[in-house]
Design a protein that fits this description.
GO molecular function: oxidoreductase activity
Organism: Sulfurifustis variabilis
Protein name: Short-chain dehydrogenase
Helix content: 40-55%
Largest sheet: 7 strands, parallel
Distance between the termini: 44 Å
Low-confidence stretches: none
Number of domains: 1
Strand content: 5-15%
Oligomer: single chain
Shape: globular
Strand order of the largest sheet: 3-2-1-4-5-6-7
InterPro entries: KR_dom, NAD(P)-bd_dom_sf, Sc_DH/Rdtase_CS, SDR_fam
Family: Belongs to the short-chain dehydrogenases/reductases (SDR) family.
Number of helices: 9
Number of strands: 7
Length: 266
């Protein structure tokens, strides 16, 4: 896809990966509708991009609400004149023992990470099919291919998003509408609790800056890529987990006690 003048909805736009992606898209001369629950940070981002010459509009919304999702689509039609690209980036992250997670928190995470992106894709799909082109990009995680202890709800949500992306891509083959699934590894964003950052440091887990993920998103869209897994050896572990999951079980078991010590903090 040529991003120059492409009409883009970007969710979770004021977060770490979201704001970096917004900047990368603006540098590619895309037209942006930035969506997030955080109205103040969202407006600041839009103002910054406009000051740099970009076409960027802020639209605060709670994407777990059907009325807000529909309002986003309608607003995109008004200010952008259509939709060429939907980037489902909004998400929540839980790092806890599963038995300590509140049911309401689990439900909200699944609504934000799974239900909202699926229903947003459903809303934009007829528009893209009528114009015979478009792309849906779903931001997943390495944890959507490898189930990690103390990330049970989060892993479940990203497994679901990966399966949805694969199924929809196959369904839309030949339609002109593509589906991309991007799986970052650990990334330095405000979503991370301090205990998670400390655990990653203790276990020597590599953490990417949000800008690396943003660059991968832009590159994937330009090249019409179906799937992108970021990081080495994480992308290798994805393959190993698919072929020889018991090997990965053993590796994670050796780290289990240390991981739990961080997961139970605060």
């Amino acid at each position: 896809m040529n991003l120059k003048s492409a009409r883009v909805i970007l969710t979770g736009a004021s977060g770490g990966i979201g704001s970096a992606t917004a900047l990368a898209l603006a540098q590619s001369e895309a037209q942006l509708l930035l969506v997030d629950r955080q109205a103040e940070g969202l407006q600041q981002l839009a103002n910054r991009l406009r000051a740099e010459g970009a076409q960027a509009h802020a639209y605060p919304a709670d994407l777990t609400r059907g009325a807000d999702r529909q309002a986003v689509i309608e607003h995109a039609g008004r200010v952008l004149g259509g939709i060429d690209l939907l980037i489902n980036n909004a998400g929540l992250l839980h790092f806890n023992p599963f038995e300590e997670e509140e049911p309401q928190a689990i439900e909200r995470l699944l609504n934000v990470n799974v239900v909202a992106p699926i229903l947003l894709a459903r809303a934009v799909l007829p528009l893209m099919q009528r114009q015979g082109r478009g792309r849906v990009v779903n931001i997943g995680s390495i944890f959507g291919s490898i189930g990690f202890p103390y990330f049970a709800s989060y892993s479940a949500s990203k497994f679901a998003l990966r399966g949805f992306s694969e199924a929809l891509r196959r369904e839309l083959a030949g339609s002109g509408v593509g589906v991309t699934y991007i799986a970052p590894r650990a990334t330095r964003t405000p979503l991370n609790r301090s205990a998670l950052n400390r655990m990653n440091e203790a276990l020597k887990v590599a953490m990417d800056p949000p800008e690396r993920v943003a660059a991968a998103v832009v590159d994937a869209v330009r090249r019409d890529r179906d799937e992108v897994y970021l990081g080495w050896p994480e992308s290798l572990f994805v393959r190993l987990n698919g072929l020889l999951p018991r090997l990965v079980d053993g590796a994670l078991r050796r780290q289990h006690r240390e991981m739990r010590s961080y997961a139970t903090q605060g």
